[in-house]
Amino acid sequence: MDNESMMNNIKSDIQSSIFDAIIIGAGFSGLYQLYSLRNLGLSVKVIEAGSDVGGTWFWNRYPGARCDSESFTYSYTFSRELFEEWEWTERYPGHAEVVKYLNHVADKFSLKKDICFDKKVISAHYNENNNKWLVKTDSLEEFECKYLITAVGCLSSKNIPNFAGSDSFLGESYHTGDWPHEEVDFTNKRVGQIGTGSTGIQSAPEIAEKSKHLTVFQRSANFSVPASNHQLSPEFKKYIKENYEEIKNTIQSNTNGHFFKFSEQKIFDVSEEEREKIFEEAWINGGLGFRACFNDIAFDKKANDLASDFIKRKIRKIVKDPKNAKILTDIDHAFASKRPPIDTNYFETFNKDNVTLVDLKSSPIESITPKGVKTKNKEYELDILVYATGFDAMTGPLLNIDIRGREGLKLKDVWREGPQTFLGIQVSGFPNLFTITGPGSPSVLCNMVVPIEQHVEWINDCISYVEKNNIDYVEASKESMNNWTKHVNDVANETLFIHAKKSWYYGANIPGKPRGFMPYAGGMSRYKAICNYVANQNYLGFKFSNSDKEETFVPSKISVDILIKDLMTNKNS
Question: What is d(CA 59, CA 396) in angstroms, rounded to the nearest whole number?
Answer without folding.
Answer: 16
